[in-house]
Amino acid sequence: MRIVSGQFKGRRITAPKKLPVRPTTDMAKEALFNILNNQYYFDEISVLDLFAGTGNISYEFASRGTKNITSVDQDYGCIKFINETATSFGMSIQTIKSDVFKFLEKNILKATIIFADPPYGFSIEDFSKIPELVFQNNLLEEDGVLIVEHSKHTDLSNLENYSHSKGYGGNMFSFFEL
């Protein structure tokens, strides 16, 4: 896994093999950030990275100048790895060890971009809880977007606030907006 662009472009990040993760591929990540680059100034936004895993997406935002990043994951090893990596790069990434659904129910932080990369094996009911809780609790800033990464075999187009999807290999990004 590597950082695709920004201040830390090309830096490789090697996560411990024991972490229960499936990092977003470099190709899919680069395509996603090309889309976001046309809509946002990264140094002016706030980001909430749900099911953060290795922190791959958080590091990419930080490398591009985002200062307000919160990464949420329930695995202690993932949170520890994100903290260590962010410290070694001098990135300001706040981490929260929590079940994402419990976090979304109680959270009061708003973000411009909320990125969720849940396990691909989630049921459609579990996937649907993510936008439901985000919009029910008004967690997106004005002109913000929720992006849910999932397998190309999962269809989220029937969910409320769905806008569109983009596919890259076996990865899909579904966008949700007000």
Automatic annotation (TrEMBL):
PROSITE patterns: N6_MTASE
UniProt-listed SUPFAM superfamilies: S-adenosyl-L-methionine-dependent methyltransferases (SSF53335)
GO MF term set: methyltransferase activity; nucleic acid binding
Pfam family, one: Cons_hypoth95
Keyword Transferase: yes
InterPro entries with a match to the protein in the record: DNA_methylase_N6_adenine_CS (IPR002052), RNA_MeTrfase_RsmD (IPR004398), SAM-dependent_MTases_sf (IPR029063)
Entry keywords, A to Z: Methyltransferase, Transferase
Domain of life: Bacteria
GO annotation, biological process: rRNA methylation
Keyword field contains Transferase: yes
PANTHER family found in the cross-reference section: METHYLTRANSFERASE
Name by which UniProt lists this protein: 16S rRNA (Guanine(966)-N(2))-methyltransferase RsmD
Lineage: Bacteria, Pseudomonadati, Bacteroidota, Flavobacteriia, Flavobacteriales
